Queue: 4 jobs
Job 1
Amino acid sequence: MIEFKLPSLGADMDEGKLLAWKVKPGDGVKKGDVVAIVDTTKAAVDVESWQEGTVHELLVEPGTTIPVGTVLARFLAPGEKPGEAAPAAATEAPGAPAPARDRKPVSPAARRRATELGVDPDTVEGTGPHGVVTIEDIERTAGKPAPGAPPDRAAEMRKAIAAAMSRSKREIPHYYLAETIPMLRATDWLAAENAKRPLTGRILMAVLQLKAVALALKGFPDLNGTWREGLYQPSQAVHLGVAISLRQGGLVAPAIRDVPELTLDDLMKSLADLVKRARAGSLKSSEMSDPTITVTNLGEAGVESTFAVIYPPQAAIVGFGRVAPRPWVEEGAVIARPTVVATLSADHRVSDGHRGAAFLADLSRRLQEPENL
Amino acid sequence: MNADALRPLVFAELRKIAPELEAGEVAPDKLLRDQVDLDSMDWLNFLIAVHQRFGVEIAESDYAALDTLDRICEYIAARNSTPS
């Protein structure tokens, strides 16, 4: 029997609200099939199956808020018949925390809310699955807010971001590096390329930057991976988390998978699709849990450079500022050239500044050869 | 269709990109990207929407001139006499 658990879809997710099942008992599921839609503070996420099997039973009713790690459903393994005693296996996103077994079942978010409201969570009766104490239980006990009151989504997202970023700054010893990169070749190449293309086929500078980052990372596994439970695991694949600001405030950083293998056209299509779905609040669970590093671009907000906070459990984040003409020294003369400040924030437990500097130098070199991206 | 008649239609396309905009919120003669939070992806999607609705091809080298709602409408009006 396979236990299908609510995966962690990022460091800022403690719980989610099941909105709908996309399967019913008896349905076959393959790895990657969408099984349920779960509302997080950031988006309604299509939660995918990580294993093949047949849906045996659904354990949670839509509308229920459940903590990460809760068993949502049970699947029969391939070839398994109902009633057969088979070893239990869990299906959840890699890295999802194991459910707590040695303490009262209270979601981490509910514990934080209990602290804020001065409620002892161990005295609260849980109404979640298996008696788990939820935020609603804590707030009901504290007498606020009124049951049924619509959640303040912006406030919830702010709290989630606050929790993830506080954890990052508390646990990850960041170091920061910056490199000014000449962009004349990249801007000229892109202008010539886009002049040949119809409007619908044009490429953004952000796509060149993402591809250059991804290619450079192939030589820097100490920047591309995850730190979990005291152990760093480099990733063979480069799945770039792309920081996308939402129009209603806040941001998400879902992944584009296997970026080094994508052509610029494919990467542009993937980025356009991801931005569209992120702003529509429709992302896949794998996109939320897969990033091996994040890239943030605040250049269009007008800033010169950005020194970003690492998104746990990742070990680095790359930032880009605005591409703009600036004074540049070439052959002893000061001339105006388009440049961009690229930055790296990295986990000092995993890499040293020397490695980070080499990465930025590699990134700069790749942006001087846009035709090879 | 002249630029004045085009303005509400172009604004409607802009609102698909930035749904938080209210009618009358954008001054047509002021810099558009100073008034509306548009990144390069939003901007490209807006121009694609204009292209698809009005059948106007827009060169990347013209982007800089399309800096107000009025100038965008004038650009469309000068290139297409039969908008949908």
Note: The interface with chain B takes residues 191, 194-195, 198-200, 202, 204-206, 245, 247-248, 271-272, 275-276, 300 of chain A (CB under 8 Å).
Job 2
Amino acid sequence: MPPIDELTILVPVDISVADPPGLDIIDHLEPLEVVLLGYFPVPDQAEPALIKDEYEDEAESRLVAIAEGRPDLTEVLVFTHDREATIDRVADQYGCDAVLAPGAVTDIGRVLVPIRGDVNLDRIISVTARLIEASDATVTLFHSVSADADESYGEFLLRGATERLEEFGIDEDRVDWELSEGGNPSQEIIDLGNEFDIVVLGESEPSLVDRIIGDVLSRIVDDLESPALIVRDTE
Amino acid sequence: MSVDGGELERTLGFFEAMTLGGGTMIGAGIFILPGIAARNAGPASSISYAIAGFVALLAALSLSELATGMPIAGGSYHYVNRALGSLFGSVVGWGMWSGLMFASAFYMVGFGQYVVEPVPFLDGRGYIILLGLTGLALLTGVNYYGTEESSSLQNVMISAETLVIIVFVVLGVFFIVPTNLEPFAPSGAEGVMATTGIVFISFLGFEIIATVAGEIKNPSKIIPLSMILSVVLVTILYVLVMLVSTGVIPYDRLGDSPIPVADVATSYMGPIGAVSIVFAAIIAAISSSNSSVLAASRVIYAMGRDGVASEWLNVSHPRFYTPHRAILTTSALTAALILVGLRVDAIVSLLAEAASFSFLVAYSLVHVSLVVFRRADPDEYDPSFSLPSPLYPAVPILGVVLSVVVVSQMAPVIVTIGTGIIVVGVVWYAVYARSRVVGEGLLREALRGPPTEVYRVVVPVANPETQHGLLRLAAASARANADAGEPELVAVNVVHVEHESPLQNVEAERADHQRELLENAQAFADEMDVTLRTRALNASDAGAALLDVIEEEAADEVLLGWRAEASQDGGVASPTVATVLENAPCDVALVALRGGVGTPVGLVTPGRDATSVARRVAEFATVDGTVPTLLAVVPADGDEAVARRRAADRLAEAAAAAGLDPDEYNTEVVVDDDVEAGIRAALGEYQTVCVSRSAASESSDNPVAHVVAALTGTSKNVALVRGSGRPTPQSVD
């Protein structure tokens, strides 16, 4: 797969709160394309139009305040019953490659890229390459071997991914990898991730159970204190 | 990107719409009412369900078209208010609100029955009412604090509930005792119709699909499909439930049970049957009641928006963003209705019937509204799904007739209550709403029939000094085409902004200037007694924005003001003007106005714009009531007589193509080997000159271009005309 021409990142922000946290990451994402999505969550009980009538001006000025001094943003404001659906829709509409879950960060110096398997791997690698190519950030590729799986497969994945990053022009000194046998990938990613500046995760289609009880990815993202960049699976 | 600020998300697909519609419909009605229905109509009460389902289907069909036509919150209330005006809007709004409260109270009393009855040591109406109130209080609390993205859990519950009913029906069919179904209709056709009025409440809910039309993806397909399919499937299910119920337990015995479906299930599935039915009934009651509370707050929101109800109700909670006042008010009134059950025996059927009454009235007015919308055909009504003939007008007519028939068979007390609510609506309109509402209904337009065609001239305005002249000319042009349509002008002003973001605030000063300019245009149009609409735009590319408006308005002509600073090649000064002039899909005239129009002359040159030149010159002549001249200047090229005849033919051809009668114009043919000098000489006496845009710019050493360039320095009015390229209609006479 060829590298992504122009990496576009969607940054969703809950615009109903007065002071959305952790947005200085946007400044670290330049010169990438950034779509700033201000979503206003509307409870099932309210007509979205009612909330729009009441809060549109306020929401707009908040969004403008965030966008101020960041000239290359595309701003979108949406009143929605369903945050996830809105993020998906807007990401599709603006051709976003990844969605950012904000978190406290001062610099994108160390990037953690957990790899689960083949799924979406090409995109994860090319997004990572694009993300750091203009900086001197380092990447740690990570794979946790599940209890009943073959360890050599994990090593194979990580070596392959490292090579791909080098093919994209990332110096080999900047890439290392870590293989864990802890057997609890989610928790390991959270623990390890908090030591990094940003975690790049691959999106996966949630199963029916995931839909009902909440999927693994969103639990990881919720528990991470570092920002997470979720690479969309557009295939 | 949308220009009007925030967007609203469309999140509902087909599956979601079906679960929403079906889930709201399949509710307490089918678990509680079979007993009452059986007592009133015997086994034939299944026919009551079928009729009620058919009435609902008719309403669903009309609502589908209306919902795709104007997907705005409020559902039935909104369509009636818009079509029939706020008197009927008030009646339907109040009717729907109170109907939803009756329904909600009905569900909660049913909920109480299903909880209290199976428990041996709980007994008596007091407990039922107490449980109903408790359930309502819980629902109110949940809705006050607000819920988000709870749809997956809801879907699981509704699927489970539906599954229980399907198992009940599928197994139950084997336990039907044929003799139980005889006599089939002990109370005759009247009993069947009267029961229809009670069980109609079981179908409430399909409308929610129309109510949330603005949130549905691909609305033109999904709205009608999910509405029709959910009503049809639910009707089939209800009819089967009723047949099984009366087939398994004799109808007179069934009629005594407050939890009929559970009793039926017990008889062939034992305690497991009873437990699952009780479980399903409780879920159904809660989900239906919940939907009613939500629907009620949406109706109130829509009423507030239109000035029919107080905006006070519409303020959302500062932290939970729920319409908490609307929710609390609805719940308080619903609680009062539940409390009535302490005193009134037949509370369940009364509440059901009263709710049915309200909605039957609302839906018959919805049918009428559909007819009104079709006939008045307002601009904002553009349904992506239209009832095909003969469904239109059959559906609305049949819908009204059937609703009236069902209502006429209702108990006198219900008709009294229902009429009372209608009276409240009327009084409310008279004392509160009448002075507040903005906008009239469409009844008058509907009676007049579909509007005549409009002949629309778009006039971009920017300069308060010159806009009167332009508007006068535009008005004359539009009026000259009165036989093609009602004359209408659209004045457009574009404020230039750097970034075309919806969040960009235009500086107040420029916005004020724009408003003043357009208000001034409006006032001038009123003075001239011509219809004018104004469009205010902010855009980074004024030309593209103007083209969008021209396209949207389906303009017949565009009239652009011009400072007449043509360069030598006839190119026009501003890029905005050039964009419109080159790309507008209709006739365009670029006019430099310097004085009165007087007698205009059209220089007819060979080429595609000849017809347009003839049309414009004839239109401009009407300003001062003069007779225009069509002018051709040709070189002799040897035989002067032949040249003269050919030129005269060309003029006659252009005039005929423009639809001009021979007495509506003069012709002048000049033969001169020096065409430029010939034109200059011929133009002398005329105050206004129309020239083809293409002739003026073909090449820089073209005599017409020279003349136009020279004219820019004079006091004459100059119009560069470009045809649309579309074939011009031939004159009939």
Note: The radius of gyration of chain A is 18 Å.
Job 3
Amino acid sequence: MREFGYLRPTDPVEAVRLLVGSPEARYLAGGTNLVDLMKLGVERPRLLVDVSRLPLGDVTPTDGGGLRIGALVTNADLAADPRVRAAYPVLSQALLAGASGQLRNRATTAGNLLQRTRCLYFQDTAKPCNKRSPGTGCPAREGVHRDLAVLGASEQCIATHPSDLAVALAALDAVVELLGPDGPRTLPVTDLHRLPGDRPHEEHRLLPGELITAVAVPPPVPETLSAYRKVRDRASYAFALASAAGILAVRAGRVTHLALVLGGLAPKPWRARAAEQRLIGAPADEASFTAAVEAELAAARPLRDNAYKVPLARNLAVRLLCDLAAKGQAR
Amino acid sequence: MISTTETAVTLEVNGTSRELRLDNRRTLLDALREQLELTGTKKGCDHGQCGACTVLLDGRRVNSCLVLAVTADGSTVTTVEGLAADGTLHPVQQAFLDHDAFQCGFCTPGQLCSAVGLLAEAEAAGEALDEPTVRERMSGNICRCGAYPHIVRAVVEVAS
């Protein structure tokens, strides 16, 4: 690990000023991803700006009836929050599906959104990687890509975004609150991450120095039920091969509201807009769910070893929607 | 806060205040083992994947290999050496003995600290712990010997 300076600002404005003035600086919060990447030599900051003690660690109600989640709320605390468990089951379930108890005690809301891909080639500095070292190539396309993207990838990069939390927040239409050198602004979670195209090293739309201060979740849509489901190689403590977050309302047998986001399949949480549009007003049954999800997945471009993800994601999403519809009818 | 490559920090470790001058790169795990000579906490994968380095930081279980020690300034740390009070084993330690919940023992300090943290989490949430729940919540602690069935039984016994 390269030597680095360490600063612990006491307010967000000071934190932003410190980062903007130091091109090789990084914000440090829970450290569960950044410290690991520093050990691997993937990240080599000259300065860490420790934001972990800034006053951004609370979950508070918003005027509109939603919740504002401070950037530093830990995954464990957010999953356990009674308001989250009652009003946003998809969020609590996604958090508890991720990582381990130890990691959830450290990992933060903002850090979770900005965590880097777990693509093996990105993490191995002995290998080429267009994301880590632009222009060097992508051995994953011909190499080990069983875990990697089938949607939204490019010739240059097939990495997936590993977050479970981001998938749930994308379904909830959450908004990221940012503080930059020119002041605050907001960005929908669905616009936070970029698809790789020919610039896979540019992963998100934050401006230099911008700090995520909170994530605002709107109030639950009336009559909806929500859930998160995840498939992985072992029963616990593994990244998603595929996951789905669904928020569904059904009235008189027809879909009146749907948010569907797929995880583990793409370089960002994959909001299934095509499936959503097909399903609004359509019968809430397995046949129409299947047709809509298949239409969404028509965009998939699997490689040699990850084609299994397409039917896996279809079955997962259809089962999630069927179960939500059945649960809605039963109540 | 100073900006050099070294920083002075104070940690309360197992009830004793310790002042350290630390290379900023030093993890809490290495500070405990190399500087404080508390070698009960084990270095396994060193990447947050195995849980051998689990300690309680301000009462919560964490992977000490992913915590830069400088960031823990002013915090309390409980390691496996600090679980027993006044020469009496912690109930989790006793249950591990009673259930033969280890083989080589390398992962045991992390398993013990993780179990103590998990029990506190469940108590704070008012939750009952059954075997599947304990199994899932201990999944951040890997045991290469496969002593899981006995570990789970030990934790469930203390929980009840």
Note: Chain B has a mean pLDDT of 96.
Job 4
Amino acid sequence: MNLIVSTISQGFIWSIMAIGLFITFRILDFPDMTVEGSFPLGAVTAVSLIQQGHSTLLALFMAFVFGCLAGFATAFLYAKLNVPILLAGILTMTAMYSINLRILGKANMSLTKSNNIFNEFGLDKLPTNFNGIILGVIVITIIIFLLIIFLNTEKGQAVIATGDNETMAASLGINTTVMKFIGLMVSNGIVALTGGLIAQQNGFADVNMGIGVIVIGLSAIIIGEVIYPDVPLSIRLITIVIGSIVYRLILMIVLQLGFNTNDLKLISAIILALCLALPTIREQFLKTMRNGVKTK
Amino acid sequence: MKHTRRLYITLVALTAFLVFAFFYTGHTDAKKQNAIPKVGILQLMSHPALDQINKGINDTLKKHGYINGKNIKIEFQNAQNDQSNLRTISKQFVQDNVDVAVGIATPSVQSLKNATSKTPIVMGAVTDPEGAGIISNNKKPGGNITGVSDQAPLKAQLNLMKQVIPNLKTIGIIYTSSDASATSQMKKMKKLASQQGIKVEISSINSVNDIQQVASSLIEKSQTIYVPTDNTVASGMKLLTSIAAKQNKAVFPAATTMVKDGGLATVGLSQYELGEKTGEHVVRILQGKEKTATTPVTFMQKGHLILNEKMAKKLNIQFSNSLIKEAQKKGQIIK
């Protein structure tokens, strides 16, 4: 029982990162590798600030700001200097490694003090794991709320239009370059914020903690889409949260079944591949069914 | 809209489950006694050195009459170097109510520490427990954590270098910048060497791919190369020693496994022995003879001298008779 609750709590927290990734991956329609650098960036920023005695809220805010800067770097390479987006993200991600080491001063740092955002505001009095769930739900609600408001403004609609059809958007007088900057910065800001949260939950920051983050995020987005296809944009943000929880539950079951953890990376890649292929398989299946009916 | 409704149903179900769990967990917090003792071992990733530690732990438990599945349950998990796995497995150990949790390598212990402040945790090889913020005092941990440090006997290693390389004035150190324990060893070695008037050149790498270039320029500047206990450099040891050998220079690694891969010599700790010491902590805790709060961290004072004669011949280096005798007696000579 506790294990399931713990897994759900993990799903909630990691879904925040997936929502950030959604902005670039689905709204702007390109995969952004920067997240593997901005995620640890948020973690090291938050942990260093808390260790220096700053408040946890300030630490999270600065994690967001630094994440935005990482997004800015990628956007500059991509939108201003015309570096292909995949490469631009990889460049920022690589550079981030050195920057993260500089910020943290070493490769790995524990939070020796017990004050983290999960224990502040009396959340530590809740049963185990519920502080993560409550905090996760609060942060998710705030972020989804702000995102929906933003996407319904003129600027937000312009970002969506840029992702849908850049040529068309440009012909309508939208400055698509600016839109790419906004999208990448907000996206990486949210990812870094999640990094700051997870570092506080785990009790340490490590410069290697960004490895594989993009797969976790994409899995959440795609599982959400597979379970709930064809829903309006604002609802899709909620499906990501469910997707993230389902992904964690699948991994938990895999661990519980006693699979060798050496194979965990392979299994998570297979889960993602299956979910990506599922719409195509479903279509093929329906087509053959229909044809079958016709020939009769 | 059908799918939107399905989503709402899921959300309601999820909320209902969480509300149920919220009140349910309040009642089951009282821990049940295990029928047989349970030990959870969390290993950071697959690596020959870490695998040796795990083997040492298991053999020691067996030696003390603990047979897995019969009178003890050993739950082994490998986190595959993934942060979220570390956390999930740590939580799982606490849920499973293990009697002792063992963390192999620093991040595993940090993760276990974060999951529980009650269950006894034994460190299986953490280089710098104080520096990593795991415990506040090596002599008197005070909490639920104690164990074994794999801090290499640096002084002995420096003396060995001085004995083998005459007129030693500059040492080059190569280490991985993302490896916290390698970094701390590098700093300690640098301090030791400069106290004895030896200059130290330092270069860091990010991955095995950097070794070729970084090592080539480092070797130009130094008489010999020293490598801390560093998993990444260890993977590229063959490459590093062959680059050094071209310049007729020797590589002194901190770990014994690296001598087998072409290092010249070291006074090293055996990973297996570290595992044995870790296992002994576990056994004493299980028997109720040891309390984590008052048991000092075990530091291995004595190392084994390991010499690589094949490499020495290649570099035209002759080990002194006393070294060879010592290695024959307590250490190992690789021919």
Note: Chain A touches chain B through 55 residues (CB under 8 Å).
